[in-house]
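Budget justification aside, the reviewers requested a transparent look at the raw inputs and outputs of the sequence design task funded under Objective 1. We therefore reproduce one unedited record. The lines immediately below are the structure tokens for a 180-residue chain.
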């Protein structure tokens, strides 16, 4: 990874390349009989990607933070050879986030800060068979904090302010997925 400070330290930029190797990932037990749905440890996966994040102080009161992640995942070994080469379950190709924070000192409220955040998660497969996909989704989060004393801050956070239902993951049971 590379970290950079720009514009007199008002902007921080972080970039990284990564590889994650997973061994003994859960997969469907090949000895399951009719109606049995047990999983065993086995199989291997690899996730490679790039992440970039920028955090900037814009003016005296506004802070922005944004990030993106681009990932490529592959099943590299599995008891079921038809899964090899498929994308790893529950792993999106891309993710994006943006957070804006504003402190209200300009209006005489130096101890009040508010936030608005967006998180976008891309489409991903719900199972190793790559035949059931989960749709992309965007979360809207809101927050406010107020410093009541030097060492005490009260925080109110609203996660998923639109109150939508999102499918964040599935239980990977090989070619099917029976729990979302």
């Amino acid at each position: 990874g590379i970290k950079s400070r720009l514009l007199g330290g008002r902007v921080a930029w972080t970039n990284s390349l990564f590889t994650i190797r997973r061994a003994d990932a859960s997969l469907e037990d090949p000895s399951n009989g009719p109606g049995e749905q047990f999983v065993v440890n086995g199989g291997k996966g690899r996730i490679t990607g790039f992440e970039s994040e920028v955090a900037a102080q814009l003016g005296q009161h506004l802070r922005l933070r944004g990030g993106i992640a681009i990932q490529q995942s592959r099943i590299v070994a599995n008891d079921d050879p038809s899964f090899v080469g498929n994308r790893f379950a529950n792993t999106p190709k891309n993710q994006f986030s943006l957070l804006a924070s504003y402190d209200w000192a300009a209006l005489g409220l130096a101890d009040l800060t508010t936030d608005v955040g967006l998180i976008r998660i891309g489409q991903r497969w719900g199972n190793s068979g790559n035949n059931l996909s989960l749709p992309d989704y965007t979360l809207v989060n809101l927050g406010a904090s107020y410093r009541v004393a030097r060492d005490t801050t009260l925080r109110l956070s609203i996660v998923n302010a639109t109150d939508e239902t999102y499918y964040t993951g599935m239980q990977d049971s090989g070619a099917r997925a029976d729990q979302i």
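The mean pLDDT is 87. DSSP finds no helices and twelve strands in the chain. Computational costs for records of this kind are itemized in the attached budget.
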